[in-house]
Each structure stands twice: as C-alpha cells, then as structure tokens.
Design brief:
alpha+beta, Lipocalin, single chain, eight-stranded antiparallel barrel, 126 residues, 17% helix, 1 helix
C-alpha cells in the first residue's frame, strides 16, 4: 500500500513539473547583455562581468580579484537555456556552464578553473 502511494505521488509530482516546464517552453530569453555579478560558491567571492550578445554568441569582460580585465566569450542554447562561458585572464582561464532562469536574470551552474579546480557559481543580472 505504501509503495503504491509513493508511486502515485511521484507520478503526480513529475506531471506537475512537466506541465510547468511545458507552459514556459515557448518563452525566449534575450536579456543577457549588460552587467552581471558572478558569485563563486566555494569562497563566496563576487566579481563583475559585462556581457554583449549577438545571435546567441557572447563577448564581454570579467574583472578578477587582481583587477585584471579578462576577455569573455561563450554561447547560449535557447532550447535548453544553457549558458556556456569562457574567461581568459592573463595567468589562468575558467570554463563556466549553467542554466538561465526563465526571466534570464539568474544563471546557476558550475566552473572549471586552473585545469582542475571545480565548484558552483551563480550569476545575477544587475
């Protein structure tokens, strides 16, 4: 009896989640250009990032802790809301991958830096 109840509950929750994602699937996120704040979850540090966007491709500037201006490039996959960014600083680089909120003002994801350091990140539009 308990297994049946859990199964029905799981189906119900999955149906609600699927309905919610389908109801928003026609929305297009286009509001990426502008100023962002990157929050590195491993140490709670925050750095500014500015993005420009053309045809799903990003360019921009990231300012690291040493105040170096680093180049940003990347792309956006509208079908999955996936954002992929690469930051090239004078002495190191970062690869970032995350997913944008439906309104395009929050990106949550992960990063790879220095070739082997990984962690979580959030980006918030200013």
């Amino acid at each position: 009896m308990m297994k049946n109840l859990l199964f029905v509950t799981a189906i119900f929750v999955a149906s609600i989640m699927m309905w919610g994602s389908l109801s928003h699937s026609g929305q297009t996120i286009t509001d990426f250009p502008g100023k962002w704040q990157v929050r590195w979850l491993s140490n709670d540090s925050r750095n500014p990032l500015t993005l420009s966007q053309a045809s799903g491709k990003f360019t921009g500037t990231y300012i690291n802790d040493a105040k170096d201006h680093c180049s940003v490039s990347g792309e956006f996959a509208a079908a999955t809301r996936q954002v992929m960014l690469r930051i090239a600083c004078p002495k190191w680089g970062i690869e970032m991958e995350g997913y944008a909120s439906l309104d395009g003002k929050l990106i949550v994801g992960k990063y790879l830096a220095y070739g082997n350091a990984v962690g979580g990140l959030t980006m918030t539009k200013k």
